[in-house]
Amino acid sequence: MATPDTDTRQTEAKNCPVCHGTGEVARTVRVGRKHRVVGEQSGLCLNCLGSGQAPE
Considering only CA atoms, which of 54, 49, 56 is closest in space to residue 20? Predict the structure, then answer.
C-alpha cells in the first residue's frame, strides 16, 4: 500500500485565508420572496477556486 501524501497537502493547503485549505466555503441558502435563510450548503472557494492554495 502506498504511503499517503497528507503531510505535503496540509502544509500547502494553509495558504488560503478564506477557506483555510479546504477548498470549500459555506454558502447561505435563501428561499422565497422575502429571501428567508433556510440553511447552508458547501460552495467552491472563489479565492483559490477549490485548490486550497491562495494565488500569489
Answer: 54
Range of 25's domain? 14-56
Contact present, 39 and 31 (Cβ < 8 Å): no
pLDDT tens-digit profile of 34-44? Answer: 999 999 999 88
- Separation between Cα atoms, residue 30 and residue 53, nearest integer Å: 29
Tell the burial category of 10 from Cβ atoms under 10 Å away from its Cβ (0-12, 13-18, 19+): exposed
* Domain-embedded: residue 30: yes
- pTM of the predicted structure, to 2 decimals: 0.50
